[in-house]
Amino acid sequence: MRRRFIMVLSGGAAALVVLSACLMLIQTSRSGREMQAPPLELSSMAVEEPPAMAAPPPSASRNVPASPSMALIPAPPRESGAASEIAPADPIAVSVPQLAYAYRLGFRLAGPRIADAQQAHLALCRDAGPARCQLIAMRNGNSDEGYANANLQLRVASSIAQRFRDDLARTIAAAGGRAVETTITADDVSKDMVDTEARIRQREILVARLTGMLRNRQGRVAELVEAERSVAAAQEELDQAKGWLGQLRTRVAMSQFTITYTPATAIEPTPREPSGRLGDAVVASAAAVYAVGRNLLIVLIFLTPWALIFGAGVLLVRRWYSRRPPPPAEA
Description:
Blueprint (H helix, E strand, L loop, with lengths): L1 H35 L3 H8 L20 H5 L9 H4 L13 E11 L4 H15 L4 E7 L2 E2 L2 E2 L2 E8 L3 H14 L3 E11 L1 H27 L4 H33 E10 L10 H50 L8
Parallel strand pairs: 1-7
Antiparallel strand pairs: 1-6, 2-5, 3-4, 5-7
């Protein structure tokens, strides 16, 4: 009986627990549905448009205020012509490299015409003017064996360098010569110029700051004296940087031309008289005798100390052997 009563109580408790769990699940599902369902009135208000309202003309659209219902609906973005409304991007700034050109030209022509061709090239330089062509160096001459090579160094404006090179070649062709060498080299000085300009800006700021401190007389006397020294040093560095920048700009603006003239055929040397040849033979023989005697004297001076040392050693050995007692005679 007792056992049966316990089983009834356990079954009733289990039924109550299951019933309460079912009620809690039902309540939770209802509350979730209520939270997910949007309010019908708000959605209908957001979509509803005013009936029988004609679109206003473009001229009056600016003066007619928008209704509250229309303010809730955002205007759709314009798809047509959207690409044309995008502002164009700024072009990328490309810096042109600063190049210093050097031309090396070699011409071969008859020896007697080298001087005339060189003078013709100088005339082309003079016609260009000192602002666009400058003479740096010139060499010309001949030896006893014939005509020697000649050189000419010019500094030509880079804007006319190609045309000037063509004029040089035409002048040589008119003189009966030809070009045997053409070398063009370029040195990029962009980095040096940018670094120098940045250094100049920094030194200008430093000089202005120190000058302002000296002008206002702020600080002690020792600080002012030190500031004056700093201003002098900074000004000196500024002047050096400006000079170097000017030199770099000159290298870019003016190209270096090195022209070499080579004779095509050498002229035979002028024959000399027999008396001159005999005198040359006597002079050459005397020079050979003098050279041999000088070499012998050098060898004698070099070997004399060693000969003295060797002779002294021989004398010491002989003296030592002379003082040794004679060996005993055999019976």
